[in-house]
Specification:
Layout lengths: L3 H10 L1 H4 L4 H48 L10 H11 L7 H13 L15 H12 L21 H8 L5 H6 L11 H14 L5 H20 L7 H6 L3 H8 L10 H21 L6 H19 L10
Helix pairs in contact: 3-4, 3-5, 3-9, 4-5, 4-6, 5-6, 6-14, 9-12, 10-13, 13-14
């Protein structure tokens, strides 16, 4: 259970609030940081991207307002958190997923992943990933049906991770970097995601420790495996650029509500995400593992906080 005191401490610990920024301004900044990924998604997937993002954002905003009213809270969307959740849900879905399914994912993200925990600052798991996990369970075919970017000669309609895992086809790193590949709407262009991430760093809206730890652990473990047998394992840069790792490491692991409050805890948290991602990709039945790695580390976050928060002088951790 997350107490009010814990959630308030968590929000006040984040670097952006420490600088005097309001939560609404921070969320607006995250939304702005996502615009390059949104633009890349629209560039490669055209109207499918527009309809998908409109659906997930509107469903998130309406769900937020309705749940606030049902739970007897003031209806207030000014903190922009529902907007960010809607954008993230849309960006981590296949571009041609039926719009009713995409809308349900946003509803689930807001209702189950956020509001039932008490609202902003009290949720344990990243709401957008909760919405995606629901869709993976409810509509597995929709969530594994991929299309080529409109008007471009993509390597295959499968995602790069699936093509490498099941067909031994390695997508060129240049395509992964620019986004001319099949995949979820916002995970295809690593360049667009990095541009947004640099904006978050420049504005102080993101703690660099978590993504750096995630990048380092993923690159380190994948490099070790690749060094042992290059014919059996994908190279480290492929793991970094392919799939949802970039969007997950930059925009979801850094959520101050669902990540550790201590500096050492954030290193552990990020490292866990990178290692679990590689383990699932290499030895699991699913070619992608980012969603599960982040949700697992979200679950361990209270334990990480407990053992990395300094005990008061003369006392114990309790």
């Amino acid at each position: 259970m997350v107490s009010n005191q814990d959630s308030n401490y968590r929000l006040s610990y984040s670097p952006h609030v420490h600088k005097g920024e309001k939560t609404s301004e921070v969320m607006r900044g995250v939304a702005l940081a996502l615009l390059p990924a949104v633009a890349a998604g629209i560039y490669y997937f055209r109207l499918d991207a527009v309809y998908l993002l409109l659906t997930t954002v509107l469903a998130s905003l309406l769900s937020e307002a309705l749940m606030q009213k049902v739970l007897g809270r003031e209806v207030d969307l000014s903190d922009n958190s529902a907007l960010v959740t809607g954008l993230l849900v849309g960006l981590i879905l296949p571009p041609e997923i039926p719009l009713y399914a995409a809308g349900l994912g946003s509803v689930f993200a807001i209702v189950i992943g956020k509001q039932l925990f008490g609202g902003l600052g009290k949720n344990i798991f990243n709401p957008a990933l909760i919405g995606r996990a629901f869709l993976v369970a409810a509509y597995p075919v929709f969530m594994t049906t991929w299309t080529k970017p409109a008007g471009y000669d993509a390597v295959t309609s499968a995602t790069p991770l699936a093509a490498a895992r099941f067909d031994n086809v390695m997508t060129p790193l240049s395509r992964l970097f620019l986004g001319n590949i099949s995949g979820s709407l916002g995970e295809t262009s690593a360049l667009a995601l990095l541009v947004g991430g640099l904006y978050l760093l420049a504005k102080g809206y993101m703690d660099w420790r978590i993504p750096c730890a995630a990048f380092a652990s993923l690159l380190g473990l994948s490099a070790l495996l690749w060094g042992i047998d290059p014919s059996a394992y994908s190279p480290p840069l492929f793991h970094l650029l392919a799939g949802g790792f970039m969007i997950g490491a930059i925009y979801m692991t850094t959520d101050p509500t669902t990540s550790p409050v201590t500096k050492s805890g954030r290193w552990i948290f990020g490292a866990g995400v990178g290692i679990i991602t590689v383990v699932i990709r290499v030895w699991g039945g699913n070619p992608e593992g980012v969603m599960y790695s982040i949700l697992l580390m979200n679950a361990f976050r209270p334990l990480i906080d407990r053992f990395t928060t300094p005990a008061p002088f003369g006392g114990g951790r309790g």
